[in-house]
Specification:
- This protein is an alpha+beta fold.
- The chain has 8 helices and 27 strands.
- InterPro entries: FIST_C, FIST_domain_N.
- GO terms for molecular function: kinase activity.
- This is Histidine kinase.
Length: 379
């Protein structure tokens, strides 16, 4: 396996790694993560298709691009991957063709042959797709047979329109799955948040999909404001500092959910993922150092499953973390780079949701506010 990183700049690809491939025509997979307007209107896809004629090309809009130990805005980060002993057969569906995201998730997996399958990477639209329902559909058919990781496309802090494309210019509603086949392919993954839990555990008494109305009979927004103190006056912007930790079953690890918007009239809150009735919730708050430490721990957890430094690490972090960390955002990427060392190339993006299991042999989950890492290599 060989990987070369590029930045798309001035309508050209600029190599960003020392080990540039001698023959770009051998590339099987190109992952491009970029600002929505750039990858939608500039000839990014056309240039990639010209440079990598034999490759499958996946493009995804972002809330920030990761390349090595840097975080960029308004750019396109490209990873060109040559697989020597592994095959891939990417597939895609569009949410418009299905009744809901759950059905789209199942339809996507039905397109995949599971013979000799090692791993599935998911890159999905982040504005028209319900990530929780997508993951539920995926899990139903994958049934823990192989690990599944990935993320939802972003659109900066606009939250308006995201685009994804497989072997075409990116557009709205697309969901891409990239299955990797063969016994020589090695994948590792980890996902960490680093948010501090505070306040007692409470039960959700009224919620519809991703809209939370009541916690233990009290309007959710009213209760939320009592915990925010002076930050309550800064809603909805300050909500990124105070996500919700949710446990669907008592034995589950808490999943972090980002608040997207609030409704003063109904006293409800809309989240970037479903909130089931009867689930247990606790409020969370940001701690800068713990967020960066969590990225380090995620890298360490992914690394400890391997016998040597991987060729490539895909980092999918959350737009909420980027908003909270601000000028310190690169610190979490630098922490990951330091953990893996200079033999591992880093690519990735800031997302509207991360997809990863909590641990080995577990179903994948939709996460918010995490650093999710997947490593790729061949034996």
């Amino acid at each position: 396996m060989q990987t070369t990183l590029f930045l798309f700049d001035d309508n050209k690809l600029q190599p960003q790694s020392k080990n540039a491939m001698a023959d770009l025509t051998k590339t099987q997979l190109v992952l491009g993560f970029g600002e929505r307007e750039i990858i939608s209107t500039q000839p990014v896809y056309e240039e990639l298709k010209s440079q990598f004629p034999g490759a499958h090309i996946v493009l995804c809009s972002t809330a920030g691009e990761i390349i090595n130990n840097r975080v960029n805005d308004n750019s396109v980060s490209v990873a060109a991957i040559e697989l020597e002993k592994t095959s891939i057969h990417p597939v895609a569906v569009n949410i418009r063709d299905y009744e809901n995201s759950y059905e789209a998730g199942k339809a996507l997996i039905r397109l995949i042959n599971f013979t000799n399958l090692s791993y599935i990477l998911i890159i999905s639209d982040g504005s028209n797709v319900n990530g929780s329902e997508l993951v539920r559909g995926i899990n139903e058919l994958v049934n823990n047979r192989v690990p599944v990781t990935g993320g939802l496309a972003g659109d900066g802090t606009n939250f308006q329109s995201t685009v994804v494309g497989l072997n075409e210019k990116p557009s709205n509603g697309n969901i891409v799955a990239i299955p990797f086949y063969g016994k020589h392919f090695v994948v590792s993954h980890a996902s960490m948040g680093g948010w501090e839990i505070f306040g007692p555990e409470r039960t959700v008494t009224k919620a519809v999909d991703n809209q939370l109305f009541e916690i233990e009979g009290q309007k959710a927004l009213d209760l939320y404001k009592t915990y925010l103190g002076p930050y309550a006056d800064e809603l909805p912007g300050s909500a990124l500092l105070f996500p919700l930790g949710i446990k669907i079953n008592d034995d589950d690890a808490p999943i972090v959910r980002t608040i997207l918007s609030i409704d003063q009239e109904t006293g409800s809150m809309v989240f970037a993922g479903d909130i089931p009735n009867g689930s247990k919730v606790r409020f969370m708050k940001a701690n800068f150092d713990k967020l960066v430490d969590a990225a380090t721990h995620a890298a360490g957890q992914a690394f400890q499953k391997l016998t040597s430094a991987p060729q490539l690490a895909l980092l999918i972090s959350c737009v909420g973390r980027k908003a909270v960390l601000g000028k310190r955002t690169e610190e979490e990427v630098e922490a990951v780079a330091e953990t893996f060392g200079n033999k591992t190339l880093l690519t990735g993006f800031y997302s509207y949701g991360e997809i990863s299991p909590f641990n080995e042999n577990a179903k994948c989950e939709l996460h918010n506010q995490t650093m999710t890492i997947t490593t790729f290599d061949e034996l």
